[in-house]
Amino acid sequence: MLELSRTGQPVGAPPPPPPAPPEKEEQAAGVGILLQISMLVLAFVLGHVLRRHKISYLPEASASLLIGLIVGGLANISNTETNIRGWFNFHEEFFFLFLLPPIIFRSGFSLAPKPFFSNFGAIVTFAILGTFVASIVTGVLVYLGGLTYLMYRLPLVECLMFGALISATDPVTVLSIFQELGTDENLYALVFGESVLNDAMAIALYRTMSSVKSNDSSGQNLFFVVLNFLETFFGSMSSGVGVGLLSALLFKYAGLNVENLHNLESCLFVLFPYFSYMLAEGLGLSGIVSILFTGIVMKRYTFSNLSENSQHFSAAFFHLLSSLAETFVFIYMGFDIGMEQHSWSHVGFIFFSILCIGVARAANVFSCAYLVNLVRPANRQIPLQHQKALWYSGLRGAMAFALALQSVHDLPDGHGQTIFTATTAIVVLTVLLIGGSTSTMLRALKVVGDGHNGPLEESFEGKNCNIGSSYDEGTSSGGKLKMKLKEFHSNASFTTLDRHYLTPFLHLMTMVMMMTTTMMMERILMTQLKIREERALQGPN
Amino acid sequence: MLELSRTGQPVGAPPPPPPAPPEKEEQAAGVGILLQISMLVLAFVLGHVLRRHKISYLPEASASLLIGLIVGGLANISNTETNIRGWFNFHEEFFFLFLLPPIIFRSGFSLAPKPFFSNFGAIVTFAILGTFVASIVTGVLVYLGGLTYLMYRLPLVECLMFGALISATDPVTVLSIFQELGTDENLYALVFGESVLNDAMAIALYRTMSSVKSNDSSGQNLFFVVLNFLETFFGSMSSGVGVGLLSALLFKYAGLNVENLHNLESCLFVLFPYFSYMLAEGLGLSGIVSILFTGIVMKRYTFSNLSENSQHFSAAFFHLLSSLAETFVFIYMGFDIGMEQHSWSHVGFIFFSILCIGVARAANVFSCAYLVNLVRPANRQIPLQHQKALWYSGLRGAMAFALALQSVHDLPDGHGQTIFTATTAIVVLTVLLIGGSTSTMLRALKVVGDGHNGPLEESFEGKNCNIGSSYDEGTSSGGKLKMKLKEFHSNASFTTLDRHYLTPFLHLMTMVMMMTTTMMMERILMTQLKIREERALQGPN
């Protein structure tokens, strides 16, 4: 496994240790991991206590962030710093390859298909057009700020990179806070869907800008950006759906759902999502979009082919992994921010960036909602308070953080460091302030269910024991929703939906998949050829 | 997380890639992981097919090894080698920190306490005295071979390092083959217990020899080696038991076994073993001994405090993780061996080494069995066929492989490479030949149960559904054993055993734990001081 080292830190990465006895290094790594595990345990216990006492202004995510901040701050004060820094070195790769996949898969796996697909048009509008608008607006405002000496001046393309990475509203953060409360199902689907899909858009935009910068070829125009995004998005979706369907076929016909093969069944079941993620990444597509759709498909079509024991197990397994990964991400972010020797000369940059992203998010949400409302019938308009809630829920989290880490690489002349500092500050502020006030805001806007019915994840577990209605597991975000769901089942509209909507969609997807498989094979060959050519040239380009 | 790069390869590690676009590196890592996942899926499916057709001469472990060998060989032939090599770079750290803990924990967790503790004296004799004898005999024979020009000549201390690392009979390999069959419970306990504990001895011996070599101070004598081992062993055991008891107390009094908290409960439960492993590693003790005892204690005292759902879940969870880790280890070993450009000039060394380890293992097993039989009453003698089976079962596996990888580091003058080549060859030969013939051997020696009653792991799963008798989960290694177990329950001798033996042991352990906690705190402080001193000196020593 490749692990990029993080260069360009002001603190300076610890110098590569001398050829010391390996057991000492292993011991050091052991102490680091020990500290991480202790913080995880502490975060879980604290989260439990907070939830039990219904302290809504400090959600679990914020609590984890704070634990990280405090421990990082303590480590910063003590003189063992470089040592601890080494243990905790966060790699974008580690995040993208090991922490993100379980979180996103679980999102898809526990997704209620109905609200998601019935809002699909709106979600895609917010995710694609909206994120694009937000990135450009943020980038241009930051650039103008630089021109007028209000902020640190960055070149336009770097401003756009910053705009792209800071436009990724984070599914991790948003989900963990929204799940604590019970929100309106449509609002939940909008916020959730947008935050998952706009990550893909943000990554695509960021990479495009990054390649524009490194090539210095301004020939890449808007059209190519959009085309690139669409290619990535639909390619990833097809590969995800394809892997999901493959797993459904395997489990249907391999006959593993008999007694005594639970372990084999579970092993194969948990390998598929990761396979999907890695397939997409290997093809240069977006792993998170792919694994999201694999989650949706596997829940709907593979899950029911499992034996009952394996159903219980896999639901709990993915829940466990995503909880661990989520908590770890927050702790780590807090730790890194507490640890870092930030140059506070960028306070102005941070302050004005926050204003810019607020404006940009307003431009995103209200313009896209206007467009969506133009198309939708009167009874399905997005109400103004939902728009406000959507605007307010634009927390920045792990994805922005990970991309900012990458920007430290991509912009080694100190600009990346400025972007990184600003991003971490924005992440902490939005998670602590917005996260802490989300429940108040949701109640003020009257978009919350009853909120006291217990968090979503708890109602999950209860449902898990009732396999008969297993596919509604993810929809139960509050009491109101649960009621809706019941009437929904009683008039069998889901079955109708499935027959009229999902099954044709499935057939369509199978065809799309076959087409894209050919396309992908071509793409692999092209990539291979390209790598060989580049190696043959050995040029610096 | 620190990851050591592997130096001193004849093939040459791939040169550090130029500051290429990170998405390309990520993509490459993605393809590598994709390949690994595909091989895992293939190994599981193949293992299932082999088991269904009862092909005993190709156990699952060997099948995984062969898959790795074939793919590695193919990659070796193709010219994309350095690329693939980079993706697959196996780090000792990765093995010791992430693959080994779940395997060993599960061993402890699924251990039948009775046969293990009733054979404890014999196991400790084989593990401590026997491994010591085997290491010394192997080392001296290899040294003599070098002196008489039969083999490549290595200095005595390096011969002893080789002797130590090759004396680690592997729990991974041994367990996965023994579990396929149903063996006599006492023999199983002996082979299993010895192979788990002798790893600790082999690591301690290897590290001691390594530090003797690096310090060139021959002041470290036999007494210190033994003292060091005993300190490591009892320290690790106490810390493991301590963490296990801590978890038992937490789950007893935290009141998490109510409805709706399954996820929190499971999260905490799965963090404890890792905590124990890392605590021991961080203290410079043996993580595997620690996690083994944590497994035993958690199964006996923590498990029953969990809610029923979490009991099902955690048993299946650890089974899943250990299956994945085991299969991955075998695939990886095969891959690495197939991939490596071995210098076959060492064929003589390999051949004579195998003879040496055969002789050394005989010296270990038969002398220790003689000693044990001197003490045991007539009805509890270790019969000769058990001794033969024990001698035959000395497969070398992942632990020897990992230590050999480390020796490439420790002995950069090419000697490490020789040791590594010899070790990999020995691992492949013992796994394929001994592994393939183990069932024949066990049947010939008439120590097998009925063998057709289904593998141990399958009877596990069946038992898992029956929580009432959950602690006998690990004991059911075959039909004979199952019968024994039933009568065992009916006359309630286990309860008696528990009251008369385990509970006092527990009280004793609590005291030992409190003492060792103090000792450990001191040790942490000492280590910290030492590190600071060393840093202050900045000397090469």
From TrEMBL, chains A, B:
It is found in: Membrane. One of its GO terms (biological process) is sodium ion import across plasma membrane. The keyword Transport applies. One of its GO terms (cellular component) is plasma membrane. One of its GO terms (molecular function) is potassium:proton antiporter activity. It catalyses: Na(+)(in) + H(+)(out) = Na(+)(out) + H(+)(in); K(+)(in) + H(+)(out) = K(+)(out) + H(+)(in). Residues 12-21 have a biased composition (Pro residues). Keywords: Antiport, Ion transport, Membrane, Potassium, Potassium transport, Sodium, Sodium transport, Transmembrane, Transmembrane helix, Transport. It is a multi-pass membrane protein. The chain crosses the membrane at residues 28-50, 57-74, 124-152, 221-254, 274-297, 317-335, 347-372, 419-438, 505-525. Residues 1-25 are annotated as: Disordered. Residues 42-443 form the Cation/H+ exchanger transmembrane domain. PANTHER family: SODIUM/HYDROGEN EXCHANGER, SODIUM_HYDROGEN EXCHANGER 5-RELATED. Belongs to the monovalent cation:proton antiporter 1 (CPA1) transporter (TC 2.A.36) family. This is Sodium/hydrogen exchanger.
